[in-house]
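> tool_call: predict_assembly(chains=two)
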Amino acid sequence: MKNKLLHLPAFAVSALLAATAATAQERVVHVYNWSDYIDESVLEDFTKETGIKVVYDVFDSNEIVETKLLAGGSGYDVVVPTGPFLARQIQAGVFQKLDKSKLPNLSNMWPQITERLAKYDPGNEYAVNYMWGTTGIGYNVDKVKAALGDVPVDSWDVLFKPENAEKLASCGINILDASDETFAIGMNYVGKDPDSKETADLEAGAEVYMNIRPHVKSFNSSAYIDELANGDTCISMGWSGDVLQAKARAEEAGNGVNVEYVIPKEGTYMWFDNLAIPADAKNVDEAHEFINYLMKPEVIAKASNYVQYANGNLASQEFLDKEVLENPAVYPPQETVSKLFTISPYGPREQRVLNRLWTQIKTGT
Amino acid sequence: MAEISTTSHSGPARWLVVAVPYLWLLLFFAAPFLIILKISLSDTAIAMPPYTPVFDSFGTLGNFVSQLDLENYFFLAEDALYIQSYLSSLRMAFISTFLLLVIGYPMALAMARAPSRWRPTLVMLVILPFWTSFLIRVYAWIGILKPEGLLTVFLQTIGLMGPDEQVQVYRTDIAVFIGIVYSYLPFMVLPLYSALEKMDGTLLEAANDLGCPPLKAFWKITFPLSMPGVIAGSLICFIPIAGEFVIPDLLGGPDTLMIGKTLWTEFFGNRDWPLASAVAVLLLLVLVVPIMIFQKQQQKVG
């Protein structure tokens, strides 16, 4: 959620492109996706192959997308909401059903992922999975070792035990500013059902963060990639691919920062980002063509190789780089997957309790 | 308005002149405000748009009105978060405005006392930062204030800071004050300058001739005469700072509590448009008092 305004220039540029595209009356598709979430050449290839121009715009929080969609007339043809948000948006009537006759590449999808997605989209009528991943710990290997000694970093204890957090405070702790998943992880850590919506359980989850709050430097969900990469932050709750991108950036910069990602042994939140078409989309055919294109095994493999997130496309796995497919942080082994959990959407009243606690954690008020 | 109605001109041209500002206010202030007010009386819903009831036709007006209530306003009174956010915003705005005045006044005075051929250049220099996007300027402050930023490097280079020390300002309230004072300074300096420039310099000469020391002359003559500029500048800064969101979000820490941020959470995080609207309506009421003082002052001057 951190910097809503980070992508304003990108937005202005795409608005400009949109204006010129409309006057030229060429085929366009307006795509709204997460930041740092695609290999840009995929978009160029799509335009080359189909003649459809892609107006590509990015966001860094589900909340921004949801607000735009609920207001109506967002102007986007393809958006990429995460599971619980998708479920609520379907309920609110934001999306249209996919025309599966226009999506022959559906046959490439991974049944295991499609099945899990059905929790949010019963019958898989509205969305197809784009990427999925986990929320784990990203850390600076050397700095954490310097602060904590030679202990294995394989548990949420490293972050959530106050005595550890205290030692790590000076080198920088970041927590994702995404209340729903942070609470699920907190509740799971103290042995509660991560999908619980009971106030008492949510409070127990909040307690985990309250205990380490004095030692937390920041709560953000996008700037932490660079901060991990340049050493400003030494440990962060983070999304798998983001942390791996931070690792790659640090290696590229050759600054001696060694970033690693771990899925803690207690298990963690498994999320799904999915392609869906708003009910008021203007370029419905183009949107279907775009989604179908992204389901081509070699295309989505290219995207996964670039962003280091796993995709929901089984057929793509033969095109994946070995270091992506065999990286347990990206494609976790089966025994890890069994410890991953998903969460259902919060109702309005539960959401209020949740965000009120979250505000209390962040501001102490 | 008062001036126009007392002139001898009449006919459609006069009405047009009067109508334009009123139409402007109606379209861009009254109409949006009424929409916000209406949403603040509604309830949340999982729908598009995410509140109910939605006005559909005049036939169901009675039913529509009966569904509106003040529930959201009662909720704001129940939870200390909102009161504290308002108070914290007002505190930030008050301190920032004071700092702006302390920094802006000498600048404006120096500009007003400068040789007249320099003045246009000096005014231009004050306006110059506007040529770069506001957002980019705030981002630039991140680059300056962050622990490995330019300020740390500078202080280390001139030896005021050891190589292991870092400036710990970014993501604190101090950074927010720096950002606000920097961003709003032109809005403080320009009204002060225009008030000071109009001042009759012979008054100070007379005071000097009569044996009044310069400092006393400043407080007896210059400052009282610049009061309209002080009030205008302070209000132009105070009001938007109280509702500021961008600067505290980019430069402040997670515990920087301001009403703009609280409103953001209601609107985006909780998807509670009705409560967010109620917060906005109350913010307007909190700020209407200084606006009225401002207007009263303007009338006195006029």
